[in-house]
Amino acid sequence: MTADPGQRREAGRALPSDPPTPEEPLTARRAELAARQRALVAALLGTGPVPPGFPPDRIAAQARALVAKRTRVAGRLRPDLVAALGDAFADLFARYAEDHPREVGVGAREDTRRFHRWLVREGAVPRRWTLSRLLRRHR
User: Fold this and answer.
1) Beta-carbon neighbour count of residue 71 at 10 Å?
2) How confident is the model at residue 136 (pLDDT cuts 50, 70, 90)?
3) Which residues does the annotated region (Disordered) include (predicted)?
4) Confidence band (pLDDT; 50, 70, 90) for 1?
5) How far, in Å, CA of 93 to CA of 116, rounded?
6) Phi, psi (degrees; rounded to nearest 5) at 26
7) Could you tell me the sign of the dihedral formed by the alpha carbons of 57, 58, 60, 65, in that order?
8) 43 near 63, Cβ under 8 Å?
9) What does the angle CA 52 – CA 50 – CA 44 come to, to the nearest 5 degrees?
10) Considering the entire predicted model, what is its pTM?
11) Phi, psi (5° rounding) for residue 49?
């Protein structure tokens, strides 16, 4: 059975799409949808308010989950920082993330480099160091 291109899917069911009205062409509706999506992404990244129609507690929970994921990715990319900072790694990353929300278009590697530079500015790690030096220091 082929899906009708004039239908959209919601929760596994096909629903008829609302056709654009003559006063509201399809391009305007797409632009509005794109703006609403940008607002939702901004709220999830912590750079904007929660858009109307979304429960703030759920957006906050998802935003925290995204920071936790960001922390895990940074830890995988820089195991030397995890080894050097130990249990403080996650707390320091959370502080960093609060002041430096994830930017659209900035990859995980660049985000982790920025975190390292932030750690240096905060005095949490020396400017120049190697993994072996850090591991010797923390034995």
Assistant:
1) 20
2) low
3) 1-27
4) very low
5) 10
6) -55, -40
7) positive
8) yes
9) 135
10) 0.67
11) -75, 165
